[in-house]
Amino acid sequence: xxxITARVGTEDASESLVCSLENLEYRGYDSAGIAVKNxxxxxxxxxxxxxxxxxxxxxxxxIVGDVGIGHTxxxxxxxxxxxxxxxxxxxxGRVAVVHNGIVENHAELRRDLEARGHTFRSDTDTxxxxxxxxxxxxxxxxxxxxxxxxxxxxxxSYALAMLHEDADTVFxxxxxxxxxxxxxxxxxYLASDVPAFLEFTSRVVYLEDGDVAVLSxxxxxxxxxxxxxxxxxxxxxDWAAEDxxxxxxxxxxxxxxxxxxxxxxxxIQGRLDGDDVVLSEFPAGSxxxxxxxxxxxxxxxxxxxxxGESLFADWDVDAQTFLAxxxxxxxxxxxxxxxxxxxxQSGETADTLAALEAAADAGARTLALTxxxxxxxxxxxxxxxxxxxxxxxxxxxxxxxxSQVATLVCLGxxxxxxxxxxxxxxxxxxxDALADLPEHVEAVLESSTAADVAARHAxxxxxxxxxxxxxxxxxxxxALKFKEITYEHAEGFAAGELKHGPLALVTADTPVFxxxxxxxxxxxxxxxxxxxxxxxxxxxxxPRTSDALADxxxxxxxxxxxxxxxxxxxxxxxxxxxxxxxxNDLGRPIDKPRNLAKSVTVE
Length: 603
Ligand code: M6R
Fold this sequence. Notes:
Layout: E1 3-8, H1 14-24, E2 31-37, E3 42-48, H2 51-58, E4 67-73, E5 88-89, E6 95-103, H3 106-115, H4 128-138, H5 143-152, E7 156-164, E8 170-175, E9 180-183, E10 188-191, E11 203-206, E12 212-215, E13 220-223, E14 229-230, E15 235-236, H6 252-258, H7 260-268, E16 272-273, E17 276-277, E18 292-297, H8 299-314, E19 319-323, H9 324-329, E20 338-344, H10 350-361, E21 365-370, H11 376-380, E22 383-386, H12 399-420, H13 427-447, H14 450-457, E23 463-467, H15 470-486, E24 490-494, E25 512-515, H16 521-533, E26 538-543, H17 547-552, E27 555-559, H18 564-585
Parallel strand pairs: 18-19, 18-20, 20-21, 21-22, 23-24, 23-25, 25-26, 26-27
Antiparallel strand pairs: 1-4, 1-10, 2-3, 2-4, 5-6, 6-7, 7-8, 8-12, 9-10, 9-11, 11-15, 12-13, 13-14, 16-17
Helix pairs in contact: 4-5, 7-12, 7-13, 8-12, 8-15, 12-18, 13-18, 14-18, 15-18
């Protein structure tokens, strides 16, 4: 949902700003722009479309400057046009601002500013900010005081960076939207997310809500919402620059699918100890007071929650999964002994943050299960548990789903032991299988025939995915992945529900992917026959040992036989590949599906 960045150094900033914008493009790709200061006023270049359009416009433009800000946009207020592209400036062109978030009181501020003679050039909510700063500068304030005064007038969520032609610094602030400083050797940076400047530095400072940062080439200063100077810790990020690149792959999504053996190893590293789990954050007894678990999440993370819920139920832990947006709008009863787990890859999804806030207000204990250290969810919840999947850039979530589920298996074991006083049924076999999961994913990646299956079915009119229990969660996830990147119609159903309505949609042109986790195989095989009787082709996705399903299906994608609780993670890898290859065959922009962005920071 928009990415902002800045660089302050002693050499030209424009090239590194564009590079940072390329790294942030997963946050939005409707338009991109930069503003730099070159001693003779601000120079701005901005273009509708992807960062590549901006890059082309920059070539030979002579736009250079050692202090600069940049923006890549996911449109909220106003269509994706050159005029609405950031940075936005004041009437005099002395102040340029980039913004991620929403200024909720922009209409009223704009009306007042226009009444006082300001001329607006865009439809955006952002443009009020440079005009507010302009007024304060005209009243005699210095740049920092003017910036502070302007943000005092804003309501909503925002991460903002500002350039003023009279200052060799960048001014920035955050409230409700992420912003992190990068502390370099020869330059300092800021961005909505760490991958933006990972090539230049891995030393970071996460800002708190209300902080104002002033960055110069060799220093930075942070003051809190009350204007008092504060010290925020400098942390070392252990992601490497190549982790955030595409490497040898055509798309981030394919790279991230193939990274799953590694990301899963990172997820479970140090967390398995024979037939027990070790979560350093949560020693035995950490959840003794918990009576029930609510998962709140969106999209793929919601499906990971459903997967976890199906496992927790088998382990006698009362768990329920909620769409975060609904939970925030209509919070259910949340007794104090409820643990509310926000599952969120980015840790910045506004709906999930709102649900967690509603839960905290109701007195529940909150836990962020996230990939991003320093994210808002990690910082605002009572506790955090990291999935350690490494940076995920593709808009379609892949490796983070498998790491979320693997983390939930560990968390569930800890909670079940604390709540019930005993290990989960079958825990030793399950934890052994979890240790083997990276190898099993490797085996799927090495032998998958998903590309052939995708080639046969990409062009059909509808794509259905069915399963039971954890395989139902994966049916929903596989359908989301398929529709998100192919733009073809896809739906996931509980296998038993098919005959209660959706079966009416089944024709010879609607392949049904039947996902078997090793449980209830005979029932799933019956559902397969029901589909075939109506002429629908069936692709079974099942362990090698599932003879009944393999015999019933028209074609099969197999996965290694493992503990039934983990089979559906492997099936999901096959279906990620099916979605990827189908989208590729259809010529879709896989890493940047239309209308979407990686991190959804608006409700
Ligand atoms: O960062 P989060 O896990 O909170 O994001 C939630 C959803 O926006 C996300 O999973 C989305 O559904 C993915 N793009 C699906 O591939």
